[in-house]
Amino acid sequence: MKWKEQLLNLTPYQPGKSIDQVKKEYSLDKIVKLASNENPFGCSEKVLFTMNQSPSFFALYPDGYASELRSVLAGHLSIQEDQLIFGNGSDEIIQMISRALLSPETNTVMAAPTFPQYRHNAVIEGAQIREIPLVNGEHDLDGMLAAIDENTAVVWVCNPNNPTGNYIKEPALLSFLHKVPRDVLVVLDEAYYEYVVAEDYCNSLDLIQKYENLIVLRTFSKIYGLASLRVGYGIADPQTIKALEPVREPFNVNKFAQASAAAAIEDQNFIEECRRKNREGLEQFYAFCEEYGLEYYPSQGNFILINFNADSNEVFQFLLEKGFIVRSGKALGFQGYVRVTVGSKEQNDGVLDAMGQYLAKQAAAL
Ligand SMILES: *Cc1c(COP(=O)(O)O)cnc(C)c1O
């Protein structure tokens, strides 16, 4: 068959191991998954009513325009309703942007390593990919600017960056946006926006008014704890949203997702509580790294990338057998490192204890 040539070398996304898989494989009864930056505290109780519905709720298509969610979210963000586009996760918005703008005649600029879906979708569209290495875990914005030419269609900026957790300070981001040509779309992926506490982090919504070529991506999968329902959104100038809308599938965000996300927004106490506990959790990891002399990237997200100076897969495997699923840095472009989602205090204590055991074993082997 006549598959696109670029698909032949593309592997589907490899998700982290599931809890059930690991339970079976290692005969463990308690597994803690700290691999996909999900919220260890679940979601707001206020969303639970959305699951208890009558048969007619199931039978009817969802509102393709997500009107209720749109109205609640626009109010929450103090923006206009026509500045929003919704996706089946922000993953789908990344796909829509790629579909709308990328082709074999274009190129696209991104950091490396960063969130892999930018590259993945660009490959599918046959665009040329220009990856600019991170410098000390941070985007090399000048390098990215230098890579832009007349065929560049999209520039991807992940802030805070996954997998490093680094963020871009406001002046640097402002100067970057000022210099990007106005016919190049800048995608600012803020999947971890609600976790950020840095004071010089940019309030990107103020920039939407100024830059028609900027789209900000956020999600309900991370701090809102609704990853299973798949709902993310883009915020941009109404003209940009309008240009993107035709590539969106008519009923792309399901009814449960729309209702749950709208309810979740109303419980900002839950969000604040999660942000606070996440900070406390990060402090546990920082203290551990300092005690053992491990390098790490200070994080504005709900995860931390730690350098074990060892085979990442071996650390991963050791932790797995103790019942903790983390991400091996190897698959993320950081050989020697492990990325761990910040869990509850008890989960963090557990994984740090297991990490301590790994380091003790390694020291004993020397
Ligand atoms: C998790 C994540 C996403 C995907 O979120 P969904 O809304 O669940 O598709 C997007 N970007 C980054 C950087 C992420 O870490």
Automatic annotation (TrEMBL):
Transferase listed as a keyword: yes
Cofactor(s) needed for function: pyridoxal 5'-phosphate
Pathway field: Amino-acid biosynthesis; L-histidine biosynthesis; L-histidine from 5-phospho-alpha-D-ribose 1-diphosphate: step 7/9
Source domain of life: Bacteria
Keywords of this entry: Amino-acid biosynthesis, Aminotransferase, Histidine biosynthesis, Pyridoxal phosphate, Transferase
SUPFAM superfamilies per UniProt: PLP-dependent transferases (SSF53383)
GO molecular function: histidinol-phosphate transaminase activity; pyridoxal phosphate binding
Enzyme class: transferase
EC number per UniProt: 2.6.1.9
Catalytic activity: L-histidinol phosphate + 2-oxoglutarate = 3-(imidazol-4-yl)-2-oxopropyl phosphate + L-glutamate
GO BP terms, alphabetized: L-histidine biosynthetic process
Pfam family membership, one: Aminotran_1_2
Gene3D superfamilies associated with the record: Aspartate Aminotransferase, domain 1, Type I PLP-dependent aspartate aminotransferase-like (Major domain)
Aminotransferase class I/classII large domain boundaries: 30-354
Residue numbers of N6-(pyridoxal phosphate)lysine PTMs: 222
Subunit structure, interactors included: Homodimer.
Family affiliation: Belongs to the class-II pyridoxal-phosphate-dependent aminotransferase family. Histidinol-phosphate aminotransferase subfamily.
NCBIfam families membership: hisC
Protein name: Histidinol-phosphate aminotransferase
